[in-house]
Design a protein that fits this description.
The structure holds two protein chains of two kinds. By secondary structure, chain A is mainly β. Chain A contains no helices and twelve strands. In chain A, strands 2, 5, 6, 10, 11 and 12 form a six-stranded mixed β-sheet that branches. The termini of chain A are far apart. By secondary structure, chain B is mainly beta. In chain B, the strands form two sheets. In chain B, strands 2, 4, 5, 6, 9, 10 and 11 form a seven-stranded mixed β-sheet that branches. Chain B starts with a strand and ends with a strand. The chains are: A mainly beta, B mainly beta. Chains A and B meet through strand 5, strand 6, strand 10 and strand 11 of A and strand 5 and strand 10 of B.
C-alpha cells in the first residue's frame, strides 16, 4: 500500500530564513508526488508536483521541492520565508500508471515568525 | 470562476439523522472525490468517481453513499449519522488524464458535527 510520512507536525521559521517541510513516501513503482497548502478555514490548494524529469520542481509562490529517489523523499523548500506562508502543508503520493488515488500525509503546520 | 462549490458550510446533526452534502464543479472535470479531514490524520478518501455513472470506494467508505448522475454534481449522503462522522468534509475534482491527475481543485469544506 502507498503511504506518506510528514515527520514534523509543526515547523517554525523566522521570516527571511529558508524553510524546509519534510516528506517521505512509500509506493510501488514510480511515484507521482504532490504538495498542497491549506490556509485557515479554506480548502487545499495545489502547489506543485513531480511526475518525471528534473528532480527539482518549482511551483507557486516561490516554493520548490526536491525529489530524491534513493531516500524516497520529496521535501518542500523556499529560500526566503514570508509571514504569509504560514499555513498547513500536505504531501501526497500516487503510483504512476495506476488508477489508484492520492494518499495524503498528516500535514505539517508551518509558522513563519516576524 | 466558481470552481468547486460545497453546501452547506456548517451542519449539526443528531445521531441517526441522514443528510446530503452537495458538491458541484463547473470545470468539466471527469474526476470527483470526497475526503474527510480529521486532526492529525490528514485527508482520507471516502468515495470517488471517474465520470458520470461511475463511482468507487476509497479508504473510509462505510456510512456514506455517493452517486454521479451528471459530470457537474457529486453528492455525498450520510445514511445514519454517528458521532464518529464529525469531521470536515472536502469535495475535490480534477482532470483524469495522466499528466493532470492528482492536481485536485478543492471546495471550501463542510464542517459537520454529529451529536
Amino acid at each position: 500500500a502507498q503511504s506518506v510520512a510528514q515527520p514534523e507536525d509543526q515547523v517554525n521559521v523566522a521570516e527571511g530564513n529558508p524553510l524546509t517541510v519534510k516528506c517521505t513516501y512509500s509506493v510501488s513503482g514510480n511515484p507521482y508526488l504532490f504538495w498542497y497548502v491549506q490556509y485557515p478555514n479554506r480548502g487545499l490548494q495545489f502547489l506543485l508536483k513531480y511526475i518525471t524529469g528534473d528532480n527539482l520542481v518549482k511551483g507557486s509562490y516561490g516554493f520548490e521541492a526536491e525529489f530524491n529517489k534513493s531516500q524516497t523523499s520529496f521535501h518542500l523548500k523556499k529560500p526566503s520565508a514570508l509571514v504569509s506562508d504560514s499555513a498547513l502543508y500536505f504531501c501526497a503520493v500516487r503510483p504512476s500508471g495506476s488508477a489508484r488515488q492520492l494518499t495524503f500525509g498528516s500535514g505539517t503546520q508551518l509558522t513563519v515568525l516576524p | 470562476n466558481a470552481g468547486v462549490t460545497q453546501t452547506p458550510k456548517f451542519q449539526v446533526l443528531k445521531t441517526g439523522q441522514s443528510m446530503t452534502l452537495q458538491c458541484a464543479q463547473d470545470m468539466n472535470h471527469e474526476y470527483m472525490s470526497w475526503y474527510r479531514q480529521d486532526p492529525g490524520m490528514g485527508l482520507r478518501l471516502i468515495h470517488y468517481s471517474v465520470g458520470a455513472g461511475i463511482t468507487d470506494q476509497g479508504e473510509v467508505p462505510n456510512g456514506y453513499n455517493v452517486s454521479r448522475s451528471t459530470t457537474e454534481d457529486f453528492p455525498l449522503r450520510l445514511l445514519s449519522a454517528a458521532p464518529s462522522q464529525t469531521s470536515v468534509y472536502f469535495c475535490a475534482s480534477s482532470y483524469s488524464t495522466s499528466g493532470r491527475a492528482g492536481e485536485l481543485f478543492f471546495g471550501e469544506g463542510s464542517r459537520l458535527t454529529v451529536l
